[in-house]
Write a structure and sequence with these properties.
This protein is mostly helical and 69 residues long. It has one domain. It has two helices and no strands. The longest helix has 30 residues. It starts with a helix and ends in an 8-residue tail after the last helix. It comes from Homo sapiens. This is TLC domain containing 3A.
Length: 69
Amino acid sequence: MLLTLAGGALFFPGLFALCTWALRRSQPGWSRTDCVMISTRLVSSVHAVLATGSGIVIIRSCDDVITGS
């Protein structure tokens, strides 16, 4: 459990930093605010997709989602 937490704590800020860096290099005309906003939205979208995927896995693996474990 702690390994997963540590992985997420490194993955999402790393993805944000990578996206911000890549946007600043590929779009030099954009302001820092634009790059940060797009990076934030991209990381949020990745987080939403992963959360949805894990929810689908949980729902499919349990017969009774409320009382199942």
